[in-house]
Amino acid sequence: METKNAWENYTVKQVKEAEAFAADYIDFISTCKTERECVDRIIEEAEKAGYKELNTLIKSGKKIVRGDKIYSVCMNKSVALFKIGQRPLCEGINILGAHIDSPRLDIKQNPLYEDGGLAYLDTHYYGGVKKYQWVTIPLALHGVIVKKDGTTVIVNIGEDEDDPVFFVSDLLIHLAQEQMDKKAAKVIEGEALDIIIGNRPLVIRSRSKDGSEEKKDKDKVKKNILDILKKNYGIIEEDFLSAELEVVPAGRAREAGLDKSMILGYGHDDRVCAYPSLMAMLESGDLKKTACCILVDKEEIGSVGATGMKSHFFENSLAEIMSLMGNYSELDLRRTLAASCMLSSDVSAGFDPTYASAFDKKNVCYLGNGVVFNKFTGSRGKSGSNDANAEYIAYLRDILDKDKVFYQTAELGKVDQGGGGTIAYILALYGMNVIDSGVAVLNMHAPWECVSKADVFEAKRCYAAFLKGVGI
Q: Topology of domain 6-102+266-468, per CATH?
């Protein structure tokens, strides 16, 4: 079976809509490079669309009714949006789920040091990365530093034209004979991914009794960095202990190709699914079934912790909503979850002819051919996968065909080649219908990834069609 290329079948109107949506998406991933930045933007957009914060409703005791729009936030890193539909919750809800964390370098708790006249910040890479891809490229520093008095200092350095950028150095080719003989996993070690942040020493001149100048020689570059941090941000070295700082590629996402058909940017995995999910949710009309869009943290390291999908954040938020609707019980909650349907929206590996041997060409997705469905992910013998059932896939085929959404199916490479996972299996534990859907990506997990504008647009159209459905 062959899939259709969306560009070849678009009307002039659809081309304009796809380009406009891509422009908005480029702005989103260019300004939202951390989970906190994503959540801030999502809340801003949700409140513009009339969504109310769940905790505020709980405190007021206001009853939730059909048509109400609610959002809930977990530690400023995960967010869930709900729109109450016509039917009782116990008949199930339609859920769009994606993650907003991406592979990166995290700054360690005791990071600042000087060596060889250079100041460094020590890092620990986050998620699955090819470490050698992170050297010699411009890097930016994003995050927060929380001082003991509770004051939060927002850090965003490296994105404006006048900002400095940072980098990880590499050994010059003239001296790299031994390095070039190493396996790719060993060319750059994890402990060598420290970023260079300065070279100028702090000059302190004082006069001795005989009138000659005295200089303090130890860690002058580090002291200069600390002096800059104190002057510009009001922080001291110990404040790194309560900081969350992420090192990401610097600069905006860009249109790619002479035809401008693609987008090259950081964090497509998985904000390229999160943004269309959010927009489909915000633009939805009167719905038959309650809709939920949950955008979570920590997927790249196993969905763990209080802000990952394995936490009870989603379940607790739904329980609170049911309580404010006057029909909460543990049994009703379980029935609601079991009767629900979900699109676990995460990226898939687009076919790359340069590395064709890694793919099964009969079961692969192509850039420009629409949203991708992975019946299962996992690795090798489907280990760790959620394997969607045939009835659910048939239901999705029907609603997507009715809305003329371009879609394709794929596996993540050849059977024995490797594999990957998503949040799908976690929600499937409730007994609901779940399938992976998303956007084809080239260079997945690299600092700069590539997607098709058409696929981003089709993802939004797919998610909008799904929210209108009545389930199976």
A: Aminopeptidase (3.40.630)
